[in-house]
Amino acid sequence: MANNTLTVTDNRTGTSYTLPIEHGTIRTMDLRQIKTGPEDFGLMGYDPAFTNTASCRSSVTYIDGDRGILRYRGYPIEVLAEHCSFLEVAYLLVWGELPTQAQMNDWVYQITHHTMVHETVKKLLEGFRYNAHPMGMFVSTVAALSTLYPEAKHVEDAEIRKHQMFRLIGKVPTIAAYCYRHSKGYPYVYPDNDLSYTGNFMNMLWRMMEPKYVANPVLERALDILFILHADHEQNCSANAMRSVGSALTDPYLTTAAAASALAGPLHGGANEAVLRMLDEIGSKQNVPAYIKRIKEGHSKLMGFGHRVYKNYDPRAKIIKWTAERVFEATGRNTKLDIALELERIALEDEYFVKRKLYPNVDFYSGIIYQAMGFLPEMFTVMFAIPRTAGWLAQWNEMLTDPEQKIARPRQVYTGEQERAFVPLEKRGAVATAR
Ligand code: ACO
Question: Is 363 a catalytic site residue?
Fold first, then answer.
């Protein structure tokens, strides 16, 4: 018998089965042959929240959560954060290799020349109330791009896919900036093709009457690093949404909007905003022990702590801390930092957090930096969605070109009623009482 197999015995029947093991996994479809009789559907795997199920083969991002390793296409995140620009990393994620100079020039040209959005987008944004959450506006506007590019539905065409990727990576900063300007009541600022990806984003956010916006180079680079750190994270909740929705061959605008919707939740990308709200609630360093006590009593979670995959430390959190110091040299120290450091210090010593392997994740410090740079907390998750669009598209493109993938359609364990006799409306009160 080959070594790379698993033998299981079904104690209901006494039958043994040998299943192949590949890449440390068995195919759950191989369980289907395990039956108690011809009428039996066959064994399935039950894995709520996919805690131990691989849904795809992927060569985009590698994480070793126990050792705190994160690599995009084989390159350690620390190396990419130190040496690359965000657009270089976006190219790497989408196309699998770091670009040559010529490829990079073309990529930057294409992205830069797809930053403008149709004028109707401004009208669409006008429809939102002044206090609409930017993430809701962002999701809706990305979805609305679907109406402007009907050819995008031909997702099986590689050239069409490529074009939509230029558009999406190019336009998400513009949409994000327009959402911000709308909530402030400021006029929209058109993209400036002379500027870098992040420099242009800052221009569209913050330019007022000056003829040419010049970003602080320290902040521009810090934002670029933060974008690199947020660009992909393998099969997280939003990437899974991207793949799942995209598997129906939905166009990439609607699919990206679905992924961004998943990101908006406070347990995922929305955590960065929640961290800031939590730090506001704590108020000062002295209140940290009482807050930790409340968390241990189960009243709430320590936002920005814990991760499904990282059980040692989140390597992105380390780089973010380093970046925070550079940013604070330029902006002055965010007073929230002291509360965050105290929370981290106490939590890392506390048995509750140690036992559960809860460490600061990428969102614990990112909000503090963003706030110091001048971003409003409502914008934090939108800031996350901009670079993550590159990762979503890399995952989407990989899914669509994977011959093993089909429409994503999980099974369920049905726990409801078996067939019941229908009771007419006028007689139901009695039935309900009886139950
Ligand atoms: N604060 C307090 N306790 C926590 C926290 C936290 N932040 N995170 C997990 N726990 C506890 C759980 O209550 C549970 O305790 P129990 O064993 O006594 O029941 C245990 O640790 C295991 O946690 P799970 O919720 O089972 O872990 P899971 O992998 O499902 O969740 C998640 C991971 C969602 C990130 C969780 O840690 C969390 O809610 N963190 C706070 C929100 C957050 O920061 N999200 C951002 C994640 S990074 C990202 O998406 C970009």
Answer: yes
* Catalytic (active site) residue 268: yes
- Give the H/E segment covering residue 10: strand 5-10
What is 51-113 written as a DSSP string?
TT------SSEEEETTTTEEEETTEEHHHHHHH--HHHHHHHHHHSSPPPHHHHHHHHHHHHT
Question: For 179-214, what is each residue's pLDDT tens digit?
Answer: 999 999 999 999 999 999 999 999 999 999 999 999
The tens digit of pLDDT for each residue in 267-310 reads 999 899 899 999 999 999 999 999 999 999 999 999 999 998 88
pTM for this entry = 0.94
CA angle 77, 80, 86 (to 5 degrees): 110
Residue type, 23: H
Averaged confidence pLDDT in the chain: 95
Picking from 358, 356, 384, the residue whose alpha carbon sits closest to that of residue 370 is 384
Catalogue all structural domains in the chain, each as residue range(s) with its CATH number. Answer: 5-46 (no CATH), 73-269+377-400 (1.10.580.10), 271-373 (1.10.230.10)
Packing angle, helices 252-263 and 158-184, rounded to 10: 50
Minimal-distance CA residue to ligand 1 atom 17: 356
Please work out, in degrees rounded to the nearest 5, the angle formed at the alpha carbon of residue 410 by the alpha carbons of 408 and 411. 150
Protein residue with its CA nearest to atom 41 in ligand 1: 303
Q: Which of 57, 254, 61, 272 shows the shortest CA–CA distance to 153? A: 254
Q: Which residues contact 41 (CB under 8 A, 6 or more apart)?
A: 32, 35
